[in-house]
């Protein structure tokens, strides 16, 4: 019996692709209810005191503003968010790894 073993690189690439597909397919099923911070702000009646955002979001409300179809926009935003997260995580791991 031969054991089939895949490399770490192959495993990471396959895992990333699966995560991107899941994010793209299921992101439009996310709740339209406000997130935790928005909910507390509404409950305690201080949401109107919030100022302008210091930094404008590239994907406000988890959509890509340039795309009119809401489901497609949410799917693309989910996939892009997943890709950005993977890049940041691997970038951090690369710079923080122990030197041999």
Question: Could you describe the 3D structure shown?
Answer:
The protein is built from 3 helices and no strands. It is mainly alpha-helical and 100 residues long. Helix 1 packs antiparallel against helix 3.
The ordered string of helix (H) and strand (E) elements is HHH
Tell me the number of strands: 0
Structural classification = mainly alpha
* Main sheet attributes: strand count, strand direction, barrel closure: none
Radius of gyration, in Å, reads 19 Å
Shape call: extended
Overall pLDDT, averaged?
85
Query: What is the count of DSSP helices, taking H or I runs of 4+ residues?
Result: 3
Question: What separation lies between the terminal Cα atoms?
Answer: 35 Å
Strand residue content = under 5%
The poorly predicted ranges are: none
Layout of SSEs?
Layout lengths: L7 H19 L9 H8 L26 H27 L4
Helix pairs in contact: 1-3
